[in-house]
Specification:
FAD/NAD-bd_sf, FAD_aromatic-hydroxylase, about 35% helix, FAD binding, seven-stranded mixed sheet, six-stranded mixed sheet, FAD-dependent oxidoreductase, alpha/beta, 18 strands
Length: about 400
């Protein structure tokens, strides 16, 4: 098989999944991750439909994901006095199985770590394509030569910048920012997943989500594109944006300075004319990311499976495999590249809030749920099981 030595950048969701399948198909796989270790915690992510489940079952991780699942969480939208005004069902937001991002990353890593080389605390600094491969230099470790390089390093992908061009060519700000602070809710192993509720309060252009003292907080707010210097400035801006809001928001803001695991970023969408360039291919959020749209995790896992499968089918002939991967995923990824969740979760006007609440209780919302589920299953995986046995 040609193109045996490959480098994967990113060890979150798409990266470990791609590494697992490539190593299973006989490639020599190295994964580089800039974080010093796997990142725990994070928000809940989900899978929904037969296509997602098929890939996870073939990888042998579906049962463990179910065992460590959080259960569905209904979002209860309340007014300034805590009275329920609308509800978003966890069956819609959480899919068939929901799990914390950190738990999922650990499961995917453990599935393939014994057959791949992982380099934590490092990242790619330069890529130089040659006639027979790619010369790669790293920030900390020794340089190396690889046949292929894969960017699975998120919506602000360094591999994409090096191989395709700067972020501004491909990443589109959606007019909103979101923030997460604090540890995720405790998962109760003994009782299995339970249905939970989180509580959220809106006013025009702002949404605050919390579920009690020292619990994980989430914020969403409308704002033009901003540039931050450090985390302290991000916390200051977030506090300013939500000062004066009712419900429990003042108490949440008072607690914010002592909460760890803080993250703030723009809602953004990646639009690529192609996911491949020479000997480089993008997968997951680096290729078709759309923040908080609800499809990213499934797309990452399915895209990694398709990319590895096409390479195996072509005996490592990357030109053929990359063309097929690009064509398949450009069609399938459309399910996750539609509208932004910002205007739906945090409408910018009081009238918009009223319309959103009415819509949540209507039959049209049920039709939207059905369409989303059908779209996630619009992919034929029947050709891939034969390659799994190699």
């Amino acid at each position: 098989m040609k193109n045996r030595s490959v480098l994967v950048s990113g060890a979150s969701i798409a990266g470990p999944t791609l590494a697992y399948w490539l190593s299973r198909y006989g490639f020599d796989v190295t994964v580089v991750e800039r974080a010093p270790a796997l990142r725990p915690g994070g928000q809940a992510v989900d899978f929904k439909g037969a296509v997602h489940r098929t890939v996870l079952e073939r990888m042998g991780v579906y049962d463990e994901i179910c065992r460590r699942s959080t259960g569905a969480t209904d979002m209860v939208l309340v007014d300034a006095h805590g009275n329920e005004r609308a509800r978003i069902s966890g069956d819609f937001t959480g899919g068939d199985v929901e799990i914390l991002r950190g738990d999922l990353a650990a499961i995917l890593y453990e599935a393939g770590a014994g057959h791949c080389a992982y380099r934590f605390g490092d990242s790619i600094s330069t890529l130089r394509e040659t006639e027979g491969g790619i010369e790669v230099e790293f920030e900390n470790g020794p340089a190396g030569n690889f046949d292929l390089v894969f960017g699975a390093d998120g919506i602000h992908s360094r591999v994409r910048r090096l191989a395709f061009g700067p972020d501004e060519h491909f990443v589109r700000h959606r007019g909103y920012y979101y923030a997460i602070a604090g540890e995720p809710p405790h998962r109760e192993q003994s009782d299995g997943p339970r249905r939970r509720e989180s509580y959220a309060h809106n006013d025009a252009g702002r949404l605050a989500v919390g579920s009690g003292a020292k619990a994980q907080q989430m914020y969403l707010f409308a704002a033009p594109e901003m540039h931050f210097t450090d985390e302290a400035e991000k916390r200051r801006v977030l506090t300013e944006k939500f000062t004066g809001m009712g419900w429990q928001v003042p108490e949440m803001l008072a607690e914010l300075p002592v909460l760890d695991d803080f993250y703030l970023d723009a809602l953004a969408r990646v639009r690529m004319p192609s996911y491949v360039a020479g000997r480089v291919a993008l997968v997951g959020d680096s290729a078709y990311g759309n923040t908080l749209a609800g499809f990213g995790t499934g797309l990452a896992v399915v895209g990694a499976y398709v990319l590895a499968g096409e390479l195996a089918a072509s005996e490592g002939e990357h030109i053929v495999a990359f063309a097929r991967y690009d064509r398949i995923m450009r069609r399938y990824a459309k399910v996750g590249l539609g509208s932004s969740p910002g205007p739906f979760l945090a409408p910018k006007t009081t009238y918009g809030l009223w319309l959103r609440d009415r819509f949540l209780g209507s039959r049209w919302f049920g039709l939207m749920e059905k369409f989303a589920g059908d779209a996630k299953d619009d992919l034929d995986l029947s050709g891939y099981p034969a390659w799994e046995a190699r």
